[in-house]
Amino acid sequence: MTAVEIDASVADIIAAYKLPDEIPFGTEMAPIMFSAEFSDGTWQPGELVPFADVPVNPASTALQFGQQAFEGMKAYKSVDGTPHLFRPDMNWRRFSRSAKRLRMPVVPASFFAEALSSLSVALVAFVPGGRGQSLYLRPTLFGLDPQFAVKGSKRFRFLVLASPADAYYSDPIRVMIERESRRAARGGTGAEKVGGNYAASLQANENCVSLGFDQSLWLDPVVGENIEELSAMNFVAVIDGGIHTPAPSGSLLEGVTRDSLLKLAKNLGIEAVSREISINVLLNDIESGRCSELFACGTGAIVAPIAAIGEADGREWSLRDVGCMSVRLRESLLDIQEGKVEDSFDWIVAAAKVNDLAKFIARPR
Ligand SMILES: *Cc1c(COP(=O)(O)O)cnc(C)c1O
Question: What b/e string do you get for 275-313 counting C-beta neighbours within 10 Å, with b at 16 or more?
Answer without folding.
Answer: eebebebbbebbeeeebbbbbbbbbbbbbbbbbbbbbee
